[in-house]
Amino acid sequence: MSKQYRILGVIISLAIGLAILPIKLTSEDLHSGNLFLAARTIRYTFTAGILAFLLHLYLNRTIFAARWIMVEYILRIIVIALIICLTSIVVDAIFNKFVKESSFTIAKEDLNWYLVILRCLLVSTVQFFVVFYLQLVEESQRRRLEIEKLNRSQLEANLSNLKEQMNPHFLFNTLNTLSAITNDVKVKDYVSEIANVYRYMLIHNKLNLVLLESELSFINSYLYIIKTRFGNSLNINIRIDESILPTKIPPLSLQLLLENAIKHNVASLDSPLAIDVYNDSENIIVSNSLLPKKTNYHSTGVGLNNLLNRYQLLFKQDIIIEQNTAVFSVKLPIIKS
């Protein structure tokens, strides 16, 4: 819990302690003045209210299984009530050892065990709900911030793609015209795959998740275009188990990794760039042979950072980036619904 909520909790604790543990003053007590009030406040308000707040704050960091959660909460309230009860008795005993004035001693009714335990249970119960409420407020704020961060990340991705796209209607009309005026089968196939790529980007890019099967179908169209350009300079091998095809993945994730591999490495007939897309039991892995281009080009890392942020926000998981002298690889966690 953040510092501001801890401070607020302490203030509320003091207020609750004063409210539910009233100090009963007699005419003789009034002659004791503020010292008497301070003594009783220290003994009850501090030891009961503050201690109960801090203990609930500490214990509420962990939660047991959902089916036992109510039992756990009740046990916490009882245990903390016993702790603050014993602590109050110890503090009172120490106080009475040094203060002999009868005006400052505990009234007889306060020594009633039932009354003492009842007060401690009441303090513990109220403080439990105070801590629970403050944690709910903090969690709500944290989720709002995560949603805003995800929206910003998605907006940046959309803007980036929009900058690279032509007007979709003009583009598809042009592709249809080109396909109609040519008799070359290869050209028709190339145009068809381009249309598939842009259609996928326009439809799915606004979504947070897509089926891995749909993403791989898109990748096949994307790779057809890339292979047409690079030919045998690229050696791309995709081996994905059918069992994970129904799982979901952020759209364009695989395309981004393939594009990065091609952009940052040399691909030639003498030294073909090898790219492997496969999976193990936990991850989808995209790896490529490391043949860095000898240019002054400096990568900003925006693409990988964007992908990392999306996995953290959507799944609370990190992608794993590994590199050695020969291979660069990125592992995307398999998300099983």
Can you describe what's shown?
GO terms for molecular function: phosphorelay sensor kinase activity. By secondary structure, this protein is of the alpha+beta class. The chain has two domains: 3-143, no CATH class; 154-333, Heat Shock Protein 90, CATH 3.30.565. Helices cover 62% and strands 10% of the residues. The chain has ten helices and seven strands. It has helices spanning 3-20, 27-30, 34-59, 69-98, 113-164, 168-181, 185-204, 212-230, 253-264, 302-315; strands spanning 210-211, 234-239, 248-249, 273-279, 283-289, 320-323, 327-333. A five-stranded mixed sheet has the order 2-4-5-7-6, with helices on one face. Strands 1-3 form a two-stranded antiparallel ribbon. α5 (113-164) runs antiparallel to α10.
CATH class of the largest domain: Alpha Beta
Order of helices and strands: HHHHHHHEHEEHEEHEE
| Biggest pleated-sheet summary | 5 strands, mixed
> Mean pLDDT across all residues, rounded?
75
Principal-axis shape = elongated
Terminal Cα span? 30 Å
How many strands appear in the DSSP assignment? Answer: 7
Oligomerization category of the chains in this entry: single chain
Q: What gyration radius follows from the Cα positions, in whole Å? A: 33 Å
**CATH architecture term of the largest domain:** 2-Layer Sandwich
- Percent range of helical residues: 55-70%
Strand order of the largest sheet: 2-4-5-7-6
Number of helices: 10
Number of domains: 2
Give start-end ranges of low-pLDDT stretches: 20-35
Structural class: alpha+beta
Report the CATH topology name of the largest domain.
Answer: Heat Shock Protein 90
Percentage of β-strand residues: 5-15%
